[in-house]
Amino acid sequence: MTLPRDYRGQTCALARSMEIVGERWTLLILRDAFYGVRRFGEFAAHLGVPRAVLADRLAGLTEAGVLDRRPEPGTGRREVYGLTPKGVALWPAVRALTAWGEEFHPADGGPRRVFLHAGDEAPLDADGRCTGCGTAVPVTDVLVAPGPGLAAPGPDADPVTAALAQRHRLLTPLLTTAPTGRSTRGSQR
Amino acid sequence: MTLPRDYRGQTCALARSMEIVGERWTLLILRDAFYGVRRFGEFAAHLGVPRAVLADRLAGLTEAGVLDRRPEPGTGRREVYGLTPKGVALWPAVRALTAWGEEFHPADGGPRRVFLHAGDEAPLDADGRCTGCGTAVPVTDVLVAPGPGLAAPGPDADPVTAALAQRHRLLTPLLTTAPTGRSTRGSQR
C-alpha cells in the first residue's frame, strides 16, 4: 500500500519530524553520517541501499537542512555530505532508537558497538550520560567503539566497515583521501 | 519505489529498531498510545490513518511485543491496546523526535503540547529531566499539557482531540467507558 510522504491532518511535532527522517533508510544514513561517512559511494557500499534510494534520501535531507554538501577537507576537489547543526541535533533520537534495539533485540555475543565518553573512555548510560563522570556528553565527545558482538571485518570488507572496527570519534571523517586519490582510514581518535 | 520491510545486510541495533517502529505511521500510533489512546476507533479517528494501515501496524506492534491486547479496565467486555514494558521503553525515542520537531519546525504560536513533571509541574528539558527538581522523570510521572500553539478543539473534534486539550498523565487511558457504553473523558490527572 502506498502512503503519501506527508502526514495529512497531523500537525504535531513528531509528524513534522517523521516527514523528514521517517522515510525508509533515512535514519540509517544519518547514523552513518554520525559515524563519519561522507561520500556517496561510501554510504552506498556500507549500507547496501539501492543508489537511487540513497540519492533521493541524501537530496531530501540536504533540502531539509539536515545535511549539507561541503568541499572535502584537504582536497577541495570533491563534495562530501556532512551533518548541519540541525542534523547533529538528531543524535538523541538516533542514540535512543539504537539503545532500544540493543536492549530488546540484542545481537549474539552482545552489542556490536558501544558509545564511550572521549574524556574518560567510560561507557554512556541509557540517557547518554557518562557512567564515569556523570556528564551529559556532547556528540562531539562521543567515541564509537567495537563491542563484543562485532565480528572482525573480513579481507573483502568495504572500507567503511573496516574503519568502523576501530575506535573512532563521532562526526570525524572515517576515511580521508590520500594524495594518490585512494581512500585511507582517518585518524582513529 | 517499493523497498523491503527489513534492512538486508544491516545487523546494527538501529536497523533492528527501525524494522519494528520504522514503518509509516508507526511512531505516531505509539505516540497516541503514550497519550492514553486505547481503542482501534480512537486511533483511527484521531490519526486519520486508513483503517487497513492502522490494522496492519497494530498487528505488527502486537506481534513484536510493543503493544498488547488487554481487557478494557472497568468493563472487561472489549479489548484495548496498551504499551508493554518494551513499548514504554520507546519513550526516549518518541520524546527526542518530538523535541527535534518542536525545535526545528515549530508550530505557529509555540509548541502544541508540553511535557511536565507530575511531581512539581515544571517542564522537562531537552533530555527529559525536570527543570524544577532535576529528576530524570519516568514516563509514568510525565504530564502532557496543551501548549500555547494548541488551538481549542472545535465542537466537532473527535473525542481524543478533545480529551488531549486537557492536562493528562501519560499512559493513563484518555477515555473510559461509562455504564451507558458511551465514551467519556478519563480522569484528568
Automatic annotation (TrEMBL), chains A, B:
Write down the superkingdom of origin.
Bacteria
What are the HTH hxlR-type domain coordinates in residue numbering?
12-109
A Pfam family that this protein carries is HxlR
Keywords recorded for this protein, A-Z: DNA-binding, Transcription, Transcription regulation
This protein is called what? Transcriptional regulator, HxlR family
Cite the source lineage. Bacteria, Bacillati, Actinomycetota, Actinomycetes, Kitasatosporales
**Which Gene Ontology MF annotations are present?**
DNA binding
Q: Which PANTHER family match?
A: TRANSCRIPTIONAL REGULATOR, MARR FAMILY (PTHR33204), TRANSCRIPTIONAL REGULATORY PROTEIN (PTHR33204:SF18)
